[in-house]
Amino acid sequence: MNDEEVKQQAQLENSPDTDDMGAIKVADEVLSIVAGLAASEVNGVYGMSGGIREGLTDMLGKQNFSKGIKVYTEGHTVRVEVHVIITYGFNIPDVAIKLQEKVKEAVENMTGYEVTGVDIHVEGVKKKKEKAFAEKDDTDELMKKWEEEPAGSPALPEGTAAGEETSENRESVEAQPEAKEAPEPVRPPEGESDPKGQETSGGEA
């Protein structure tokens, strides 16, 4: 085998997967997305750590699934670099090992590329957003109560329970006029008969 044949053989071995229909090439961005999604599913990962470009993407409100991921491809092999922030309280080495296993498995199963290594860079530790989750639950509960309230029901002042007397209700009751007593029936003069023909002055009925 001459030098030219050796060179061609090396290029074939390092080229993307090929078949009778042609070559299959997976873009680096796709490899990064697959690795990023896999990394975000690992328990103990607070989030991915990106650079200035990823930060600008977040500010624009766009989802960046490849944030914190770098890939180095050579033919149909790839080495992955993962930059993460770990949740406080988790064992960092254990999380890192799970990250390596998860990323390697996902990339190889989805792309067919051979993963030669997964390098983990832990760039921060943060606590869970427990307060934010609690506030979200409170908001959901208020929205649920508002939706269940019958249409046209008067809104109660904040901090007032249903059925509780308020100053406005009290003033409304006090402003209503008092009911007058029914007048006594007018008696006809003595000696005259009432409409039924009965005397009113001690006569016999």
TrEMBL record:
**Alphabetical list of InterPro entries matching this protein:** Asp23 (IPR005531)
In terms of superkingdom, the source organism counts as Bacteria
Q: Where is this region: Disordered?
A: 1-20, 139-205
Q: Which Pfam families match?
A: Asp23
Q: Where are the transmembrane segments?
A: none
Tell me which positions the record assigns to the signal sequence: none
Q: Where is the composition biased (Basic and acidic residues)?
A: 139-148, 167-197
The family annotation for this protein states: Belongs to the asp23 family.
Q: What is this protein called?
A: Asp23/Gls24 family envelope stress response protein
Species the sequence originates in: Acidaminococcus fermentans
